[in-house]
Predict the structure of Sulfide:quinone oxidoreductase.
Amino acid sequence: MNLKPLHESLSVSEQIKLADLKLIAADGIKTIINNRPDGETKGQPRSETLAKRAKELGLSYHYIPVNPGGMTDANVADFATVMTNSEGPVLAFCRTGTRSTTLWAKSQKGRLPADAIIKIASSAGYDLSEMKSVLTTTNNQNTKTVEEKGANMPGVNAPNLSHEIVIVGGGSAGIATAASLLKRKPSLDIAIIEPRDEHFYQPGWTMVGGGVFKPEKTRRRMKELMPKGVKWIKASVATFDPDNNAVTLADGRNVGYEMLVTAPGLQLDFEKIEGLTETLGQNGVTSNYRYDLAPYTWKLVQGLKSGTAIFTQPPMPIKCAGAPQKAMYLSGDHWLRTGVLDKINIKFCNTGGAIFGVKAFVPALMEYVKRYNAELNFGETLVKVDGPKQTAWFEKTDADGKKSQVEREFDMLHVCPPQSAPDFIKSSPLANDAGWVDVDQHTLQHNKYANIYGLGDAGSTPNAKTMAAARKQAPIVASNIIFQMEGNNSRANYDGYGACPLTVEKGKVVLAEFGYGGKLLPSVPVWMINGTKATRAAWFMKDHLLPSVYWNQMLKGKEFLAKPEITLD
């Protein structure tokens, strides 16, 4: 929960949890405004549930739902009325805080200069600069406040934006694609739509959970990474209208494009496991898949001297399929080095039927499974957690497809959550039946809309969802967009490359590099690094080289070991 003040009586935030309300009340907030409609995502607390808890804590609660792209004059008027009549500080929230900020901004039209409204919103991390004309009062407009105008206030729609190339997502794939495009054609008009203020090197979270990296090493400010010349639209996407070459933002603005790139990443569905969200970060339950939880993993590893440690892996696809077992290996290595391994029972519970999907790397991994005396339980999916009782339940599927439930007690539980495409992708015309952006696995061009490309974790390509895959895909998408815009028949093709540096101990890594069909695709000669063995050279790459390659090359369009091969279509 991150409260962002707009002024002394109003803060905004992203979606709050039921447990947050007690902390909010302790912070002195007196009134809650919920601007998010019920049912936008699974696991989202219902308004009536939040209202009941707010009342118990003595908080005033108001439900003013704003549909993405559907903000009305009445919404603005209702928001302003609550603000006027509220006693004490107010917290307004939606999915990211953007809709709440936009409601406040529109309520201030005629009361504050447009530049002042935009500056205040910017200080809270919300870019409303494109709304200046909406927030400006002209000489022939009266200056009644929103409260005085009420629901009869004349409607004003946000202006349409338009860019040559629009990229949805400012993560690894999105920024790398923008940088690669500008490397090829610096004059391009590119906009990136991204609501977050911070950017993360997610492959480093395994190292944080293993006590190797400090968490700060994996985080930087988003604005520092945006390529020079790229317009950053700090907002969330609500819907796509590919037939009209437009994207609708959560604040109601429309963004037109000539070419669209989708790179929004995927979403972690912790809420699909009963009881999990309530206990994450406490009771011995953790996950390296979140920045704020990876340090807790290391704390648990250091503190565990005896007992049971369970590591889970859900159904595929997931980002970095090796990450669940990386956590197990680094934990086991610490317990071995500190002399307590013989008192710890390690269990690896995997929905799948093998330790790793590419057979060439299995023998090296099994050596470490034996070293740490880890018990492998295949066909087991985590379905429920009781944190206070430190008990987990798994659905077990045998070879005949028969299902049963297994109950396991734990002292430490490292969870890899089920994962899926973002909800706004699943519900869009860009998605295939499984919810992923439907693209050709070689060209990364959309299978229906020729001016749309997709890459990264949200794409439908059957490759491993890793940062290394995005590093290879970005130059391919950039090349193919330029070729298409220039009428060139050349094409760049993706071979499914992905890499998973499996940290089997502190000081050694099994560098798994492979493409479609499990084909081995080593990026360096075998005499330098034999990827089917655990080597110190691969650890040096993981520990020292790859973070630098990420920050200083990949995100800046320097295509180290990633230049695409070009062929004639």
